[in-house]
Amino acid sequence: MTVPGTPARLTDRKRAAIVEAAVAEFRGAGFEATSMDRIAASAGVSKRTIYNHFPSKDALFLHIVDALMARGGDEHATPYRADRPLRPQLLELVRHKLRLLHDPDFADLARVAIVASLHSPDLARQLVDLLGQREHAMTAWVRAAAADGRLNTGDPGFAAMQLEALVKGFAFWPQVAMGQPALDAEQADTVADSAVSMFLAHYG
Question: Which key words are in the record (predicted)?
């Protein structure tokens, strides 16, 4: 997971190196096989330095997941606009989601998180809590459009989950669960266009 820019302070550079090394280790070895010793060696820091930044391997992994979700979160997606037609707004939002799902770090770490959660109910609970703290950009958009009277749904959260499922059914679960390749540009456009058409045909 490449961090844009170069941190100025030494402590920030060390933290960035730890995160970069941890991403590589988690992706390559999985959660269980990754140790703080391996991350320290890869980052070129002491294990004590890692613990100065992150109290545990779980905390480090959760930080990485949260950073990935932030990269695809509301602050990087186009918010709902009352003065624009719905379809181009929603297409832009779905394409934003597809770019996140196609991020190699995101796909690999999602796979690691699923496997790790099966072995650690406590980590699974922490992941659920973490994801619950972030309202996805798509959910926020659907809520805003429904509140504006432009979508016909009494349950915007449910409607947003349906749209997410339409997208992830082609661009996430086959890749994470079955090792299928990421969609190419033409396939991604087809998924985005058809998902938006189906969604607006029902709720528009």
Answer: DNA-binding
